[in-house]
Write a structure and sequence with these properties.
The protein has 14 helices and 16 strands. It is an alpha/beta fold and about 475 residues long. The termini are far apart.
Amino acid sequence: MKEPNVLLICVDQWRGDALGCENHAVVMTPHLDQLAAEGVRFTRAYSAAPTCIPARAALYTGLSQTSTGRVGYQDGVEWNYPVTIASEFTRAGYQTQAIGKLHVYPERSQMGFQNVLLHDGYLHFARKKPRDIELIDDYIPWLREKTGDPHADYFDNGLNCNSQVARPWDKSEELHPSTWVVSQAQQFLKRRDTRKPFFLYLGFHRPHPPYDPPAWAFEQYLSLNMPPPPAGGWAKQTLGKYNDDWRADPSVAELSPHALQRARAGYYGHISHIDLLINRFLETLAEHGLRQNTIVCFVSDHGEMLGDHNAFRKALPYEGSARVPLLLSGPGIPSHRVESNVVVELRDVMPTLLHAAGVDVPQGLDGRSVLPLLNNEHSAWREYLHGEHTVFGQSVQWLTDGCWKYVWWSGTGEEQLFHLEKDPQELHNVSDLPEALMWRERLIEALKNRPEGFVQNGSLQPGCLVKPMLHTDEKNSGSV
């Protein structure tokens, strides 16, 4: 059989529960639901270090956060990874193309792709003057050419890149950054080398803020009756201390009902828009006779708290932030609806897609292919997942096996334990249960050799100095 094509779709900040097939109360994603019905949906997929940079390092390299050294968010650290998912497909004779958000540094780093068309969205680090944004963003010159305005920008509407303020997109829908990704992907299908299989990466910046979907997508959610976000009894004590004075883009705040409704309408509107765009591209694949021989993987780099426990954005260990959607379909994948509750992580995407395409999986990865599990082949899997992220001046460490989740805040020493099967919204901290001891011992084992000194005399030690880079002298992580 001819080598399969591979399509990897990575969206930004899309919650794991924000799919119709997840029985979400509001979100409408009929085309992604159909994709799930034709393959595998992973109900316990996570981003171990849930912000853009460390999460994408795991996705692109198949490595854990402790191997990449990226245990928090830090711009300006070079990406010098010799082995990536794109490099392995390129080495195997695939034509490799990336379109949209990569979020690497330097921004033009190809990460193993033969060609990159870049749009990372508004990154403060990249937008600092006197840098010419057109040199590191291919969408901007395209937008200016299409509008005839030499100063046109996706920031014309004034919405910040981490804001909960929402309004409809201020230009025609064909000019939206999400639409641009698919339009460029359609052009790739026309220009590609038809003698080769392709590995195509589509990186959507949305539903990450700014919350500016097309008007139809925004308005369809504005008047819907939305259930209130969950708020655990522990939230004010744990997160409330980080509630800054009001500003337009809070990480922890209690929005007015009106502002929250608009923010959620903007977020869900992005999701519905992207759902249609993905369908548009899958239909284009079919028109070219390529759909049946294309492996499709849909995943997000991390989630969005979206008001859960009065928190927004990401970096936290809770389900809204850390759990992500992961759908897989195509040749070599079960072709009927399968829901897997195996705990998987972004590091598993690279070995899974290489394995599915019949490409050798390189040695030394922390991730593993999930295909043996899906094909009922007995294979030992990780007992639990270790995640972490620096935030609020400390590191939030967490473990989960899909049934339980244990959280430790390194600054305060606070422990949390949630029974996810009984309490999927993490409303009740049950760290007084005996099970907490086992999970604490597991975290001690995971952290015992860490340079921060998280473990001293066999116990967790609060108050250690933390940094977003675990090590800066290793060849893979570059230097600050």
